[in-house]
Please model this.
Amino acid sequence: MQIVKTIEELRPIIKGWRKEGLSVGLVPTMGYLHEGHKSLIVKAVSENDKVVVSDFVNPTQFGANEDLSSYPRDIDRDATLCEAAGASLIFHPEPEEMYAPDNCTFVDMNKLTKGLCGKTRPSHFSGVCTVVSKLFHIVTPDLAYFGEKDAQQLAVIRRMVRDMNFDIKIVGCPIVREEDGLAMSSRNTYLNQEERQAALILHKSLTLGENMIKAGERDAIKVKNAIIKNIQTEPLAQIDYVEVVDAETLEPVESIENSILVATAVYIGKTRLIDNFSKDLEGNGR
Ligand code: PAF
Model:
């Protein structure tokens, strides 16, 4: 497995694969890989001849007071995981390789990015859309794999691909959880022992909401309020948001019908964690 740091080096490799008629899958990541990322890579390996994992902590998706400098990084550990999962190549550029000093072009979206995480992270999705577009142009994959834990990101990328006519199929992959239910995240490493225990409140509270829906509750406000009330029982938890939204438009819904997403962001101490579940009451696969 190769680790490639420049676009100039990467492009001929991809062109070579294309000449041989090989298909290419892309798994975009910010590194510090865990079992959740591994599940994306394993799926990509099973569906493509070649798999590129991008490993790049993208500065443009971090706000001024966010954790860009402290975001965990370990390329050697990432390389071991990628190799074990069967990836063909890691693309690991420096920020200067991805952004010229006078870069002034960004990809932005009017809808889908204003609510949920976009409320407290107003420039985040512009950074995500920009870097993912760049990766799509550089790697030119047939398929690209994203985790459903970042449900808003997945919906935003699906919309961007549709609106910008990228000839790429987006594959959403299920959330991978620790045994006790905590959704896997590179940011879980920020949690101390007490916070790690407190973080379980996200999944527990969402499960409570999910069970209400399974039992027939269709009032979105009642489900939302029950989740909020349960999260508030945890003294270390500070809610950023709990929302029940349409899974495609991400607009809040009053009544639970069709495809919905129930998503939350909660600060546990200083660490902001996200989690969600979705329900397709009409059984439409997306
Ligand atoms: O989900 C992530 O890790 C990042 O937002 C992504 C998609 C790799 C873009 O930097």
Remarks:
- Residues 124-139 form the longest helix (16 residues).
- Residues 28-30, 58, 61, 128, 131-132, 150, 153 surround pantoate (CB under 6 Å).
